[in-house]
Design goal:
By secondary structure, the protein is an alpha/beta fold. It has helices at about 15-25, 30-50, 70-90, 110-120, 135-145, 155-160, 205-220, and strands at about 10-15, 50-60, 95-100, 125-135, 170-175, 195. The chain has one domain: Decaprenyl diphosphate synthase-like (Undecaprenyl pyrophosphate synthetase), CATH 3.40.1180.10. The chain has seven helices and six strands, in the order E-H-H-E-H-E-H-E-H-H-E-E-H. It is globular and about 55 Å long.
Length: about 230
């Protein structure tokens, strides 16, 4: 759990991109393109808010492979274009980049780029951007269990084999588009997270909306079961 004085770990499930596009008679990936633009703005806002130390964003789930092949390919290319464009800025703005999820199923060029950017930013400490790509909470736990090599798992031993074991648990999860379900999102790390469900589609979710969610969170009394 995050201590009361530690910077917050905020997570976003950016839902509603395809519905945003459909409402405007656009193609699904046009919604994803708009989402990337918005994501860049929100990341900058988080980086400049001293309350926030980590931003986690779910970019592509293990279930998203069921989508049309062209949409999947365009999503992967959008992610690759984003990282190529931002990698220099990460270092300039002292941002550490991390990834959770599988890398054996995504395009090799994207997997290689992710590895390179992680290495380039490993010594940055002011802010962490954590992207979940080909990620599912059940899949992560199953992969962690397999790494325990049949030994009797404890909370500590299992956590040590999660994708990013050194990251603190998530404090606040924001899901856009009006959907109110957890959808296999960081099941272990969200055990005590607060949730905020927002009606807006993600491309319309502004930094002002994010600021309100963080302000609302700051006013909550967290008890962690006590």
């Amino acid at each position: 759990m995050t201590s009361p004085s530690a910077p917050l770990h905020i997570a976003i499930i950016p839902d509603g991109n395809r519905r945003w596009a459909k409402k405007r008679s656009l193609l699904p990936w046009n919604g994803h393109e708009k989402a990337v633009e918005n994501f860049r703005t929100l990341t900058e806002w988080c980086r400049n808010d001293p309350r926030i130390g980590i931003l986690t964003v779910w970019c592509f789930s293990t279930e998203n492979w069921k989508r049309e092949n062209e949409e999947v390919q365009r999503l992967m290319q959008l992610l690759e274009d984003y990282l190529r464009r931002e990698r220099k800025k990460f270092v300039e703005e002292k941002t550490r980049f991390l990834h959770s999820g599988r890398r054996d199923r995504i395009p090799p060029s994207l997997a290689k780029l992710i590895e390179e950017v992680i290495e380039e930013t490993k010594d940055q400490t002011e802010f962490t951007l954590h992207l979940a790509v080909d990620y599912g909470g059940k899949d992560e736990i199953l992969r962690a269990m397999a790494k325990t090599e049949g030994s009797k798992a404890t909370e500590e031993s299992l956590r040590a084999h999660l994708d990013q074991p050194d990251l603190p648990d998530i404090d606040l999860i924001i899901r856009t588009s009006g959907e109110q379900r957890t959808s296999n999102f960081f099941l272990w790390q969200s055990a005590y997270a607060e949730w905020e469900f927002v009606d807006k589609f993600f491309p319309d979710f502004s930094s002002q909306d994010l600021a309100k969610a963080v302000d609302d969170f700051s006013a909550r009394a967290r008890r962690f079961g006590s």
